[in-house]
Design a protein that fits this description.
Layout lengths: L11 H30 L9 H23 L8 H24 L3 H22 L4 H6 L1 H20 L2
Helix pairs in contact: 1-2, 1-3, 3-4, 4-6
């Protein structure tokens, strides 16, 4: 059995933020025709930011999510909460990525609004559960939770203004 370590080993603090940003970019590109199509002409909330803000904010949030997941990844295997927190995190990430398809492609605006409520509740639950185990991961998701609250306003506004 060899005890040699690989020469090149990608840190989870590089791997996960990069992976999450790429996943977000993939979803953004997949929904781009609908964003450039019906959404451009849709009535939007008074506080709706310019389109470029979404790319910047989501990129930063995905980096922060990646760092949070890296912190979870680095928890000792003996930690009884590690697997649960990782599953909860991956679950919210899948819901996060799927939201764009529900909103932009399927145009199920009220479902997408409810989706944000559920996603926000899961993220809040994650923060509460992660706090005693991995404060760094919990802290990194607080801005995400704040953005989800704003996203709820934006989503509900689009749903209400575009029946």
């Amino acid at each position: 059995m060899s005890t040699e370590k690989p020469i090149f080993r990608l840190s989870p603090f590089v791997l996960f933020p990069t992976l999450f940003v790429l996943l977000g970019a993939f979803v953004g590109n997949a929904t781009r025709p609908d964003i450039d199509g019906w959404y451009q002409n849709a009535e939007k909330a008074a506080l709706n930011p310019p389109d470029w803000v979404f790319g910047v904010v989501w990129s930063l949030l995905y980096v922060m999510m990646g760092l949070a997941f890296a912190l979870l990844w680095r928890l000792p295997e003996s930690n009884p909460h590690k697997q649960f927190l990782q599953l909860l995190f991956v679950g919210q990430l899948v819901l996060n990525l799927a939201w764009s398809f529900v909103f932009f492609q399927l145009h199920l605006l009220w479902l997408a609004t409810a989706w944000v409520v559920v996603l926000g509740a899961i993220v809040l639950f994650f923060i509460v559960r992660a706090w005693p185990v991995c404060k760094g991961a919990a802290l990194l998701l607080i801005p995400y939770l704040g953005w989800l609250c704003f996203a709820l306003y934006l989503s509900a506004s689009v749903a209400a203004l575009n029946p």
